[in-house]
Amino acid sequence: MKDDARRMGPATSASGGQPLQITSPITDPAELRDIIVRQGAITRSYQDQVTALQAQLSGASIAAPIDPPSARGESPRLALPEKFDGSADRCRGFLRQCEVFFSHQPGMYCEEGTKCAFLLLLMTDRALERASAIWDADPQVKLSFAYFAGMIREVFEYPAGGKDISLQLMELRQGSETAADYAIRFRTLAAQSGWNDAALWAVFRAGLNPGLQAELACHTEATSLSQFVATSIRLDNLRRQHRTGTQASASARPRVRTDYPEHREEATEPMQLGRSRLAAQGHRPRGQMQLCYNCGASGHLSSRCPERSSSAQAGGSSLFFSLTVPVSLRCSDRWFSVTALIDSGAAVNLIDRALVEELGIPTFPCVPSLRITAIDSQPIGEGYLTR
Questions:
Q1: In whole angstroms, what is the distance from residue 359 CA to residue 11 CA?
Q2: Metal-binding as a keyword (predicted)?
Q3: Alpha helix (H) ranges present in 69-193?
Q4: 28 Cβ partners below 8 Å, 6+ apart?
Q5: The listed CATH number (3.30.450, 2.60.40, 3.30.950, 1.10.1200) that belongs to domain 169-243
Q6: Cα separations (Å) of 195 from 92, 94, 165, 292?
Q7: pLDDT tens string 275-322
Q8: What is the largest CA-CA distance in the chain?
């Protein structure tokens, strides 16, 4: 009976489907090998199930949302807005700070009444006096922050100096400040004006300094107001840097002592337009020899020179007396003594063409040519400056 049970191997229960325990020892190697193989298969099945469960748990942990630290922790603590004393230039900024403070503290300031009370506590001086008056007279200010803030704006947010925003924009000028500072004031007013970019562009340009406006006339690459403002600031900074560098180099430039030839001319002689006399070295001035400045003859003064009157009647070049000074010009390491006419009302500084050619001074074309006239509107020389 026992031998038959051993030969049959482990039995299977009808209810649970699990192998029955065999208490009797098994000595047949083939049977033991078969049992070990079946137990290994069952173990591998359990391992596969465990691996599948672990994979499911891992996927569930990855898919689960992770709350950010800021959501789990407290809201960031912000500094309290500065108290408002009723200054018109601080009203807008004060109310904006309160709105930002409330939006970052939703748990503490979720009710409108709390916001209104907080706003009242931040007021002082005349702002507190006005707020206290409407707090007792109008119950709505205790129930709506927007209503309370509107009352504050109505009382204290008036234009600076009593001028409308549009009028302030029209009168805004750069003056001595930088273009960057001017742009800040302009942007502050522009944000409150409601004007479009085309109108703001024209107003911003009109407020710039004339010199900077001239520079901007050659820069047409800006296609928007923001680009134009940025270009203006950049050009203004370059102009100021160049001016500072020029002044620094001029102050640091060493003084060079030059020995100029001595002028022995004691009297001045009239200057003739269209012609310049070049004093030769060793030539005695006509004033020392009591000769006429105009013709060089003796016996009369240049003011009564007959040649002067005859040349004037003939329509020649006119001579006139004016304030003249002796001038020394240095060109190619040579000194030349000439006479210069001082004219404080002249628009340009001129030098005679014959003198330029004689001294070999290089010139360049003047494009376009300039019309040159005397004080009586008559043309000087050919009437146009071409070089």
A1: 134
A2: yes
A3: 69-72, 88-103, 112-121, 125-137, 145-156, 165-171, 179-193
A4: 6, 7
A5: 1.10.1200
A6: 19, 24, 10, 74
A7: 444 444 434 555 556 666 667 777 776 666 777 655 555 444 444 445
A8: 179
